[in-house]
Amino acid sequence: MQCGLSPIVGFRFSLHPMTNDFISVIKGALQETDTSNVWMHTDDVSTVIRGKQVHVFNVAKALTLHAAKTGEHVALSGTFSAGCPGDTSGDAYLDKGDNVANTDTTKQYVSSQFALYPMNNPNYMDVIYREVERAKELGVFNESMHYASGIHGDIHDVFAFYEETFTHARSEEHKHLVMTVSMSINSPSHGGL
Amino acid sequence: MQCGLSPIVGFRFSLHPMTNDFISVIKGALQETDTSNVWMHTDDVSTVIRGKQVHVFNVAKALTLHAAKTGEHVALSGTFSAGCPGDTSGDAYLDKGDNVANTDTTKQYVSSQFALYPMNNPNYMDVIYREVERAKELGVFNESMHYASGIHGDIHDVFAFYEETFTHARSEEHKHLVMTVSMSINSPSHGGL
């Protein structure tokens, strides 16, 4: 098996609106988001998007933001992946340019948690500690916890951190990287900023 | 750093009822589940339980089953972890016996997806392929997909598979194992068994 032959980034996620109208929240977010720069497929448990990193993160953020703007309590959980040796070259739109399709800058507080899994890298704990430091430097670190780190702030700052850390936590030598993200928005449990 | 000094297994998860009554569904599931065999902590994004593997899986299943029995569309997403070198020895109930506290055998169809991340193991892809074969042998395999594998069936069979695969995908030599699980129940999107 050969590792990391393509620059495909993928994100498998579920958007969970905690409301009886969950279907209309999800469909509305999909309608308001320009997903033309990514390949997308939905099944009965989750949705996967694939393409250039810049577009995968842009679409993930836009879908989340549009769902959040309904005012409903919504949660996003998902896994970003790149460089998996079992991956195929198909189902990705790598011929797209680098201009993002979604540019809504509406502010939205999000509280989230993430974990990095750099695969087949003996120094993976160093990568994790370095990226947690990056979160602190960027002002989005919330708290330490078992199995994850808390990241919060404005949705644009939080997604910018996630995209930056996903870039820096993988390398030519260690191409297979996994990052899980769990995000909560408009929750009655948030302490806020 | 030393790896895997303790037998602590952890599960950080969120339970998402897609209903306006999400708070009562979550609180009800917590009330009906005996969580006395695990350490538990909830924050504004997720809940973490820690303890012996048998109890962590038993409590995870019971919480999910009780939420499912409301008939609402509920989703579970979470990460099982063991052997993390950054883990601490605290916050775990390892002095408990092996008798599980929750024994409700009500049948419930669940559709789910999982991914295994054996850390710092050059042969991790072999582990993953072997465990997918196990799902097929046990009759819970649903379908292949990017970044995950589909697992479905009765909740008890599905959790039995997850516990078994979590046991077999780690070893004395490779102690740090992560397994993500995303589960959907009572969904209008399910094709069913």
TrEMBL record, chains A, B:
Gene3D superfamilies registered for this protein in UniProt: 3.30.70.930
Chain ranges of the Thiamin/hydroxymethyl pyrimidine-binding YkoF putative domain: 8-87, 111-189
One Pfam family matching this protein: Ykof
Residues annotated for thiamine binding in this entry: 15, 47
SUPFAM superfamilies found in the cross-reference section: MTH1187/YkoF-like (SSF89957)
GO MF annotation, one: thiamine binding
Transmembrane segments: none
The protein's name: Thiamine-binding protein
Species this chain originates from: Psychrobacillus soli
